[in-house]
Fold:
Amino acid sequence: MTIKVMIVDDSAVVRQVMLDTLSKASDIQVIGSAPDPIFAREKMEKEWPDVIVLDIEMPRMDGLTFLKKIMAERPTPVVICSSLTEKGAEITMQALSAGALAIITKPSLGLRDFIQDSSADLLHAIRAASMARLQRLRPTAPVRTSHSPNTHSGATSSTSAMQERMGSPKLSADAILQAAGSQSTIQTTHKIIAIGTSTGGTQALESILPELPKTSPGIVIVQHMPEKFTASFAARLNSLSQIEVREAKSNDRILPGLALIAPGGKHMLVKRNGTQYHVDVIDGPMVSRHRPSVDVLFRSVANAAGRNAIGFILTGMGDDGARGLKELHDTGAHTYAQDEASCVVFGMPKEAIKLEASDEIIALERIPDVIAKLSNR
Structure:
């Protein structure tokens, strides 16, 4: 299947370099490009794309407004590719809330080199977006603009991450920590929940966490997301939920009523000290081409908690987390994979199911009830 792509960006250089880059992929056809959404919409009326690659800051109509119009009138997968600066975190949350499936931050300078160097990431995002079933995206609550935007410099770090991903072999969780094997763990009533997700995961988590009671077991989460956005994402979930949701820091204790989200650009590991669990947030190479990696989180949970853990692998492209969920399963933890019907992209859960890593295959709608019932045990 050929993926038809429309590029909407006010930079002629970006449009041309992106056209040249995407045209090298045999499964992608750029059917048009436009310097702003008005021109883009005129072209799209003649031939509708499968995926739109969209800038944010453009003349006549900004990309966020265009995204909302498209999702309201004719939902189409959108990958945001923009030079977001200090307001990037807030705009990203608005774009994800409006239905964007992926965010690629480009630098203000060196655009040609950036696009050429990050072509694999761009292709990956477009292919994942083309597989998304937008009818599975749930309407999300409006973004509160009162959030303090994360002011980390995002473009440079994002560029470095992409360059690292391009130049690195695909590593397993062995690059971060060794598996403890199937050693027996004493079963206790102190449960922890580990969740891993990627494309479509922001909307999935937004449908799960706000439904959980304050007595829910402690939760650790890896959501693939660039490093400067996870704090704002956690703040948004916190504003919608009864439980506390925040970006994790090293030595945070995992407690009932608390969900910790791994910071972008870092790995998060669970460790045990006596009867208590806490997290470590560390640097390290990408695992399964991600940092944070779901495989790393799940292995650390398997090592520390074993059968006292419950694992969920949710919507997302690729296979990060599949082997980790298998390790969790093999230690006696109860494990779940999101079902195909409720996934935006049935990639990670599918790979986990292939490995027989999941005890149950479950619809997204059932997950809050499953977690809530654990509160009463």
